[in-house]
Amino acid sequence: MSPSREEHVLAVDLGGTKVSAAVVDRKGRILARATELVDTSSASAPVFQIRRMAGDLARPKRVSRAFAAAGIAVPGLVRRSGTVW
Q: Is the peptide bond before 46 cis (omega within 30 degrees of 0)?
């Protein structure tokens, strides 16, 4: 019996020029991954891009139930307000 998607983690690396996302299992194995150039069309575009990539990697399940957790690495310090410095 294979583990459910709820036991998998979404890992995202948002860089200055590219964003990579991967589905990782409990043993640290990468099950699926995607890399794209960062959408710089607006300040919120990378957020929507990450959400879309997560949905693509989560198929056929709904994103809200696809992962046990998610981690996102960003370039810079994150303020308490959630913005990146």
A: no
Task: Report residue 28 CA to chain centroid gap.
Answer: 15
**C-alpha to C-alpha distance for 23 and 13, rounded to whole angstroms:** 12
- 4 or 49, greater pLDDT: 49
CA distance 76 to 62: 30
Q: What is the dihedral of CA 78, 37, 17, 15, to 10 degrees?
A: 30
Half-sphere exposure of 52 (CA within 13 A, CB side): 11
Query: Do the beta carbons of residue 18 and residue 37 sit within 8 Å?
Result: yes
Lowest mean pLDDT among 2-6, 22-26, 68-72, 73-77: 2-6
Other beta carbons within 10 angstroms of residue 47's beta carbon come to 13
